[in-house]
Amino acid sequence: MKEILILLLIVLGTCKFPKKFEFGVSTAAFQIEGAWLADNKSLSIWDNLAHSGLVVANSTDPDIGDDSYNKYLEDIALMKDYGIKNYRMSIAWTRIVPNGTNGSRVNQKGIDHYKKLFRDLTRAGITPYVTLYHNDMPAYLYIQGTGYTDPDFIEDFKYYADVCFKEFGDLVKYWFTFNEPWVLAVLDEYTPEEVMTKPYDIGHALLLAHAHTVKLYREKYQNQQKGKIGWVFNAEMYFPKDVNKKEDVEAAERALMFQLDWFCEPMFSGDYPQKMKEIINADGKGRMKSFTEAEKNLLKGSMDFYALNHYFTWLAEPARKTGAGFDYDRNVNLTFDSNWNQTDMEWSIVPEGLHRLIMYIHGKWLNNTNMELFITENGAAIKNESDINSIKIDKARIEYLHGYLGAVEEAIIKGVNITKYFVWSLLDNFEWGSGFSKKFGIVRVELDKNAKRIAKGSMKWYSELIKDLL
Ligand code: BGC
Questions:
Q1: Which residues are 424's β-sheet partners?
Q2: 86, CA 20 to 30 Å: which among 274, 279, 287, 403?
Q3: In this structure, are residues 468 and 171 in contact, taking their beta carbons and an 8 Å threshold?
């Protein structure tokens, strides 16, 4: 208790967040909803992956999981009680257009569910921020075609997005097309042959699907609905392992270019970073596709805000690897400083990394624009959560959040237009390949049929922080 009070005093005493700054929490459908067969939902690629037993210890866990599909009113009540007024969530494509394809059957029960959810959030004074795609592709689409790189993918995704804009756009004013395109393109099991081009082809397909969806929203809905649309980038920060070594400095720059600039630069200039194209196409095989002039125009300016997910920092040096493909093109070896603390994901805790990343984004793209920057995910998985007392205090998570919020605050003081920050996550949830073993929630969820919610110390701390600013 004493520790919480001390941390509270530190934060309250030094707070420089503007009064209109928005604090929120973030979640994603597959990670919290459960109800895997409810109301005509189809199976997603993650339902299948989880059930294959290849990636998760207890493969049936996400079937019910946090059961937010049925318990969303409890989640809303919790947010309301704790003064959280901004909720980032995602819609499950499998609930809206079960087989995923363009022109196929729309599921009224899925639409009714999210309509109720958005209405109840709005009634509780909570603004929804909605991601259309957070990893859970309808399995049918994946099995029938080739996933993101399928020639029909853009039309399939636009069809689903169109239903969402039409049905929910009166209540949803913040849309994100895809969560973390880099993760979708890079974090997969690739054969040595696939890794030569597949990450770049997926990246290319996602960039175009994003831009076409934004065009659709702008042409058909934005004027009446008055919402905003963008997508969510993810980036770690990369410090040169030895700041005095030019090759380490360049490795750190290259690592960020191969993660963030890859997807970000086309939003501003309409094309990939020149250096990245040169590296990948140096072998003369044309592995990185080009955009047509029409596509460049479509990409340029295709977001109304800049949204970033960030968790940790690496030290970078050249990899000196031989081989071919994404890792070879990027050519970086990534390690942590032995002095850095780590979370239960074994990710480093370096608030300075977030600060420098924000300043990089500001300096490179946002300076001289009035585009808002949102931190759409930031948070920590913390160990030893079986002990109820440590949950009530939740010191390590509070320290993490305090540090990273400090990094945001410092950037605001330097003039960066950051307007929103979302903690990942509201609830302990399904952490993909790690199942429910990694605990990111500021609310604990008991993994039994009742899926009981218990606010952690960090939830109380966050609530006080928000209250102070209102
Ligand atoms: C993803 C979340 C995930 C979190 C922690 C982000 O990359 O958007 O779905 O749970 O990181 O790993």
A1: 26
A2: 403
A3: no
Ligand 1 pocket test target in 432, 436, 437, 438 with most atoms within 8 Å of CB? 432
* Alpha carbons 166 and 225: distance in angstroms, whole number: 9
* Cα 137 to averaged position of ligand 1 atoms, centre (Å): 16
Domains and CATH numbers, the chain: 2-468 (3.20.20.80)
Query: Given 180, 265, 399, 431, which residue is catalytic?
Result: 180
What is the value of pTM for the model shown?
A: 0.96
Tokens 């600060």 belong to residue: 355
| Ligand 1 centre distance from Cα of residue 411 (Å) | 23
236 is catalytic: no
Cα of 445 vs centre of ligand 1, distance in Å, is 17
Query: What are 78's two structure tokens?
Result: 């919790």
CA of 254 to the centre of ligand 1 (A): 23
**Sequence letter at residue 285:** K
355: nearest Cα among 304, 405, 302: 405
Does the beta carbon of 179 sit less than 6 angstroms from any atom of ligand 1? yes
pLDDT interval class at 324 (50, 70, 90): confident
Our answer to whether residue 155 is catalytic in this structure is: no
Q: Whose C-alpha lies nearest to ligand 1, atom 3?
A: 431
pLDDT class for 4, splitting at 50, 70, 90? low
- Quote the distance between the C-alpha of residue 405 and its chain's center: 17
Q: Are 33 and 445 in contact (CB under 8 A)?
A: no
Do residues 314 and 335 make contact, with C-beta atoms less than 8 angstroms apart?
yes
Q: Please report, for residues 131, 142, 143, 372, the alpha-carbon distance to residue 150 in angstroms, rounded to integers and kept in the order given.
A: 21, 9, 11, 33
